[in-house]
Amino acid sequence: AQSVAQPEDQVNVAEGNPLTVKCTYSVSGNPYLFWYVQYPNRGLQFLLKYITGDNLVKGSYGFEAEFNKSQTSFHLKKPSALVSDSALYFCAVRPNTGTASKLTFGTGTRLQVTL
Amino acid sequence: EAGVAQSPRYKIIEKRQSVAFWCNPISGHATLYWYQQILGQGPKLLIQFQNNGVVDDSQLPKDRFSAERLKGVDSTLKIQPAKLEDSAVYLCASRTGQGILLPEAFFGQGTRLTVV
Questions:
Q1: pLDDT, tens digit, for every residue of A15-52?
Q2: DSSP conformational letter for B73
Q3: Residues of B near A (CB-CB distance < 8 A)?
């Protein structure tokens, strides 16, 4: 069975500092990997994806993520955090085995950026 | 491009009552998901449709939950009868289902259900 682990319930960082939100996954075969962000009382908003190829993928709002196959990780990063980045972040995985494959989410990490 | 539409945004019902949620996916999207997100947890897949067929409903509590996507477009999720533990946000998402370069799903704003 596929799964996603986000080991940190909350990450605290000062504005202007780099941030990392961790994600590891387990899936049969090759994965599609995603990061989503959720603001209060809103649905999930797509940030970025890994399909294949370059291990560093760039997404919306200056976020990027690094895929590491040997460590089965897909950590979310941003060089300089903003207070407006404070939100709940979810990592998700889906096997790239066809259109019917299941999309599984982690439990989420709350990012708190302070002045 | 219009996003995924869900209604209602909020619903409060008493336990043992029934409730229905509606979702209209992005036009042309073949795959539709319903997720349940309990406060403080990640989204849990309830059911996945490919066009009007069910692909995965292994985590759907079938004694009380049902879902349909009759014409392969919009979808309805029903709970009958509701229990207190059904209080959650119900999220609908869709994706094209075609093309390896477009694997991401897009979510609606969700329906927040409170069972009292």
A1: 999 999 999 999 988 899 999 999 987 889 999 999 98
A2: S
A3: 4, 6, 30-31, 33, 35, 41-45, 48, 50, 55-56, 91, 93, 97-98, 100-101, 103-110, 112
